[in-house]
Design a protein that fits this description.
Elements: E1 7-11, H1 16-27, E2 31-36, E3 49-52, H2 59-66, E4 71-74, H3 89-110, E5 114-118, E6 132-133, H4 144-163, E7 166-171, E8 174-176, H5 182-193, E9 208-210, H6 211-223, E10 230-233, H7 242-252, H8 264-273, H9 277-284, E11 288-289, H10 292-298, H11 306-320
Parallel strand pairs: 1-2, 1-4, 2-3, 4-5, 5-7, 6-11, 7-10, 8-9
Length: 321
């Protein structure tokens, strides 16, 4: 059942996910308020209302922006940097936990009907062979980022329950799509250059989610009555091994997939010596999600296939190059 919500405020609207969500919801005739630090030239052609809002500051400005809003999608947060070994617990807690609960309190005070929080599958854990994460699993975050996301979920849930605001929590895996940066872009660059990669012996399975599938599910969580009060795990519904991902990217780039075998244990050892352990864990380890509840209870299925999502990602990458 669809709720009659049509106005939304999006925090973190200047990020990769935020920009895509703003554009998607505008195409779906939502009234969108983008909470940003400064107006974005990329949205100049779109009817977006910008509000310069800062976490933990100026609640009166938040109240003014939220006055006519049905729904809040909270994307803002301190993200996990895979290339960093150290853990900045204090910074994660300030932005993700205190910042998230602050926005939730502002939403409650303004009478917002529904609050969507984008969390992370790292709340469940770091994955592993034969592990498929489900919504009712006991959370086992393995680092400061995952722990801060779990604490933020708990804080936001408590604020919303006390204030009578519906909440929805989403835990996606790695997000890719046109314009993606960081490690996914670096992998595309390596494939494009035709550099031989030592991933031929990796036999893992990883869930991913394309940005179009993520934005579609965010809208579903905003309007479906059955989504409220629950936590959802979401992905593309097709898990890939690292060699499969490289091969598909290579095909889209008209390259041969140059993969040679190397024991994963040796790759992890070498990555540890170069302070790239987290990067290598993503490339060699497994992390899978069960998205069947989304289909069963929300009648949701990923609208874009993995092949289409990767093709769109590569096309935009090549255009940018």
């Amino acid at each position: 059942m669809r709720e009659a919500f049509k106005s939304v405020l999006i925090t973190g609207a200047s990020g990769f996910i935020g920009k895509n969500l703003v554009e998607f919801l505008l195409s779906r005739n939502w009234k969108v308020i983008a909470a940003v630090r400064r107006e974005l030239a990329a949205f100049a052609r779109f009817p977006v209302q910008f509000e310069q809002l800062t976490l933990l500051k100026e609640p009166e400005r938040w109240q003014s922006a939220l006055r006519c809003v049905d729904c809040v999608v909270h994307l803002a947060g301190r993200v996990h940097k895979m290339e960093r070994e150290g853990e900045d617990t204090e910074a994660f807690n300030e932005v993700n936990v205190l910042g998230g609960s602050f926005v939730a309190r502002q939403a409650v005070a303004a009478g917002v009907k529904r609050f969507i929080m984008l969390s992370s599958i790292k709340v469940n854990g770091e994955g592993g062979p034969s592990i498929v994460y489900r919504t009712d699993d006991v959370p086992k975050p393995g680092d400061a980022y995952g722990r801060s996301k779990l604490a933020a979920e708990i804080a936001i849930r408590e604020v919303c329950e006390r204030g009578g605001v519906q909440y929805v929590i989403l835990r996606p895996p790695l997000v890719y799509g046109p314009g993606v940066g960081a490690n996914f872009r670096r992998l595309m660059r390596l494939v494009e250059l035709g550099i031989p990669l030592p991933f031929g012996s990796i036999n893992n399975r990883r869930s991913l989610i394309g940005i179009r599938n993520l934005t579609d599910f965010i809208e579903t969580s905003m309007v479906h009555s059955g989504a409220a009060g629950k936590t959802w795990l979401i992905s593309d519904g097709e898990d890939l091994s690292t060699p499969e991902l490289v091969s598909r990217l290579a095909k889209l780039m008209c390259r041969r997939p140059l993969l040679f075998p190397c024991p994963p244990s040796l790759l992890r050892l070498a990555a540890g010596c170069l302070d790239r352990r987290f990067d290598m864990e993503r490339l060699t380890g497994s992390l899978q999600l069960d998205i069947d509840p989304a289909a069963a209870y929300l009648n949701w299925r990923p609208p874009v296939s993995v092949d289409t999502g990767l093709a769109q990602t590569v096309a935009t990458y090549k255009l940018g190059r």
